Amino acid sequence: MLTKLINLLCPGSVMSPVKAVQGFLSGKKTYLAASILLLQGLLSAVEQFAGLSGTGDILMWLKNMPQNSVVFQIAQALAIFGLRAGINKTGN
User: In sequence order, what DSSP letters do the residues of the chain get, joined into one string?
Assistant: First the structure.
């Protein structure tokens, strides 16, 4: 549906590079999204660790780790990677 709309609105000279990009991204979009999510989570974790001062803060961070949104975000990214890898295995 979206491709038909794009073909209707865009001339062929514009569509050639678009189709090349679509071909390149085919099968990589999920990995790209998961990579971005993972990098955001890792950068947030580094930011949290930079704010810690001393062993007590580190222990408190570890104690509250299940409720930490950064850990949840990293787990989501790893789950997306795992699901996509599973889809690749069953699709072949």
Answer: -HHHHHHHHS-HHHHHHHHHHHHHHTTTHHHHHHHHHHHHHHHHHHHHHHT--SHHHHHHHHHTGGG-HHHHHHHHHHHHHHHHHHHHHHH-
Say which DSSP state 1 is in.
-
The predicted pLDDT at position 77 comes to: 92
Cα(49)–Cα(44) distance, integer angstroms:
9
pLDDT tens digit string along 32-75? Answer: 888 999 999 999 999 988 888 888 988 998 898 888 899 999 99
Statement: the pTM of the whole predicted model exceeds 0.85: no
Nearest-CA neighbor of 39 among 81, 68, 1?
Answer: 81
